[in-house]
Amino acid sequence: MAAEHSPLAQFEIKRLIPMDVGGLDVSFTNASLFMVIAIAAITLFLTWSMRGRAMVPGRMQSMAEISYEFIANMIKDNVGSDGRKYFPFIFTLFMFVLFCNLLGMIPYTFTVTSQIIVTFALAAVVFVGVTIIGIIRHGFKFLTFFVPSGVPFVLLIILVPIEIISYFVRPISLSVRLFANMLAGHTLLKVFGGFVVSLGIYLGWLPLGFIVVLTGLEFLVAFLQAYVFAILSCLYLNDALHLHH
Amino acid sequence: MPQLNIADFPPQLVWLAITFVILYFLMAKVAIPGISEVLESRQNRISSDLEEARRLSEDADKAKADYEQALAEARAKAHGIVSELKASMAKEQEASKAELDAELAKKAKAAEASIREAKETALSHVREIAAETAKSAVTKLVAIDVSDKDVEAAVAGSMKGEA
Lengths: 245, 163
What we know:
The structure holds two protein chains of two kinds.
Chain A: E1 15-17, E2 20-21, E3 24-25, E4 28-29, H1 30-48, H2 59-78, H3 87-103, H4 116-138, H5 153-203, H6 205-242
Antiparallel strand pairs in A: 1-4, 2-3
Helix pairs in contact in A: 1-3, 2-3, 2-6, 3-6, 4-5, 4-6, 5-6
Chain B: H1 9-142, H2 148-162
């Protein structure tokens, strides 16, 4: 009973349809369910809203176009014209994170992005992908990325390891940022929800008011973290393509 | 923390991979081309409309220039007609004025002549009447008959003195 009311109980994985393929656990879990709902919602949103193909867009079509242009401009500003090729990936990444975050704001739903393994997998895909792009594009010259230019040789002994560590920390910082934001927000909402019940009708309105404010903040965080995830991916991509320093 | 349960990792990774790849293809093949097509056609429409508007505005400018030129020509023509008309009217007026002047001068001369004639007749009558009056007055006053010759000489003498 106590475990069910724990603020962390909402993050538990429940196997809805247990499955096993060659010893690998591929059960359809509550997380899987919300991943499927998210991609269905994204696809529905982007195709249903564009069905009119109106010259003057309505509300829904405007939202779809704004999402498209938002990411298109992000890539144009941060990566440049040769980033165009990666637009579908960044767009998919942004929409997936955004919809998982927003779906998590509906009560009784599961927040996919509050799972460290999910955010880490997304960040790892970005990290590995960007590194491969950099190596394919620049070959051995890619290693100069870790050597800041115009720095005395003695300092390089310290700076190069720092550069290498900071590079390999990227997937961790990228994934933990999103995960921690989602975890903290949802846990806080749950904790204050518990306070409302335990303080009762006389004092319960205080944490209730806090929950209202926090919910607004969490919507902001949902958008902001999707934006941060996408823009950092763009910046990493830019580093790999142009080796700027 | 339930997130750190390693036994839960494989199903999440597998389903993340499945859903993310499906979403990627749905986005790349369906959603993104749909949106970019609409945006592109709107952009084309806007630029073609702008082009059309610029063309129409050029046409309007040209029509305005043509109209202004025509107006200027008409104005110059009208001005020419007016000044021509004025000149011809002035000439006509001049001619009729000269004619009138000549006629008036002729009439004035004729009038002068008739006045002089009348004056002369009147003057000659005055002399006769004065002589007659003087003779009868002398006859009545002094009862002597004065000859006509003397009377006339006297009248002529007094008229000379008066004149």
